[in-house]
Design a protein that fits this description.
6% helix, 3 helices, Jelly Rolls
């Protein structure tokens, strides 16, 4: 009790704000004669203390000097909804000392905590080089009477501001974003198409999660059109930003207990594709679509691909660009990295232009049979279309 009393006096005097508990030591912060003319900034740290069965995706959050030229950082922290978080942290500046420190916590626009403290030089002109905190004095200052804690039932914003004796400041903003058990859905409109028609792929997932689709389809901020050559099952995987494979979500109050949920969920839907009757003409033509792929698959440039094939054996004899964009067909064994460079590994087609026999041989050699994987790039600007249309002439 005597040690706690002495420690609390130091807190009230502004020398140390719960720093022994933050650092696991029982000595006050080093006192320094501060610089008053320089360009230093305080360094800020927040530590998330968790209670119960909640999970967050980071253990520690802190500023770094390179965040902005003027200092300051903002971080999202994803937490399972109803997780109880207790904050501790510190501001440090071994050159210019800590003049003031404040912590503000708001949830859904309501201020939960507003705590601040200011230091002045002692008789020797010295000031604390660090100020830490674990709670409040319940009167607007830092102390040990009440912890700084909250339940992440809604978005919580924590703002930490510190100023040194050069009158330079730094700010750390942390937004705790509640996450519910992962949600995922996938469907098609319509659920059945004729070959060569387009269906809309409808997907949704939990906010602030990563989404991926197999077979690979680029997830774009507009309607995703798909036109596979055969009946295809697509699988959507939604993954939340947690460090473990499962997270325990406390039940909403007043219920008690927690249920462990996976942080990734996969759902599937099948698009039925009706095949056309066997053509009477030989060679025949068929409208075919190449699907936009996620970036990073097979090259750095955007790429479109699909596998051409019909219920017959034969060979591809020509490919016509049916879309409004210039495209480059990519040869077997090459990637979209070869596009837009004049490489002999690609053949450029303007709208409604058709490959020659020599260009087809340049792309596929003598192996023009099908199933035939086709890969292309497009000069489509910043908003690439989900599909590229080509008209394939083939023998059967």
């Amino acid at each position: 009790m005597i040690e706690l009393g002495d420690w609390f006096v130091r807190i009230r005097g502004g020398w140390l704000l719960a720093l022994p508990l933050v650092l696991g030591a029982c000595t006050p912060a080093p006192l320094i004669v501060p610089s008053t003319d320089g360009d230093h900034r305080p360094h800020l740290t927040i530590t998330n203390g968790l209670f119960g069965d909640g999970t967050v995706d980071k253990a520690d959050v802190e500023t770094i000097d390179s965040c902005t030229a003027m200092g300051g950082c903002a971080f999202p922290v994803f937490a399972t909804r109803y997780t109880k978080v207790q904050l501790s942290g510190k501001a440090s500046d071994p050159i210019a000392g800590i003049k003031s420190l404040s912590v503000t916590v708001t949830q859904a626009g309501q201020v939960l905590y507003s705590v601040q403290s200011t230091n002045v030089p002692d008789a020797s002109g010295k000031v604390p080089s660090e100020m830490g905190f674990i709670g409040t004095d319940n009167a607007g200052g830092f102390g040990v009477v009440k912890p700084i804690e909250f339940v992440v039932s809604n978005y919580v914003t924590v703002t930490v501001d510190a100023t040194n004796f050069e009158n330079h400041s730094n700010r750390l903003v942390v937004e705790y974003q509640p996450q519910d058990p992962v949600q995922a859905s996938i469907s098609f409109t319509p659920s059945q198409i004729d070959r060569g028609q387009i269906a809309t792929l409808n997907i949704s997932g939990s906010p602030q999660s990563s989404l991926s689709i197999q077979p690979p389809v680029a997830i774009v901020p507009y309607a995703i059109g798909v036109s596979p050559p055969v009946t295809t099952t697509y699988t959507l995987t939604v993954t939340q930003m947690f460090p473990t494979a499962t997270a325990s979500f406390p039940n909403p109050p007043p219920a008690t207990g927690a249920v462990s949920h996976p942080t990734s969920k996969s759902v599937s839907a099948t698009l039925t594709v009706k095949q056309p009757p066997m053509p009477t003409a030989n060679p025949a033509q068929l409208l075919f679509y190449l699907q936009l792929q996620p970036l990073g698959l097979g090259g750095t440039n955007a790429a479109w691909t699909n596998t051409f094939g019909v219920a017959a054996s034969g060979a591809v004899t020509a490919i016509e660009n049916q879309g409004p964009y210039d495209i480059e067909l990519i040869a077997d064994g090459s990637t979209s990295d070869d596009c837009f460079s004049g490489s002999t590994s690609t053949v450029k087609l303007a709208p409604h232009q058709t490959t020659t026999a020599a260009e087809l041989a340049q792309l596929y050699g003598t192996n023009t049979g099908f199933p035939r994987p086709m890969l292309a790039c497009a000069y489509a600007g910043a908003s690439p279309p989900p599909l590229l249309a080509v008209n394939v002439t083939y023998t059967h």
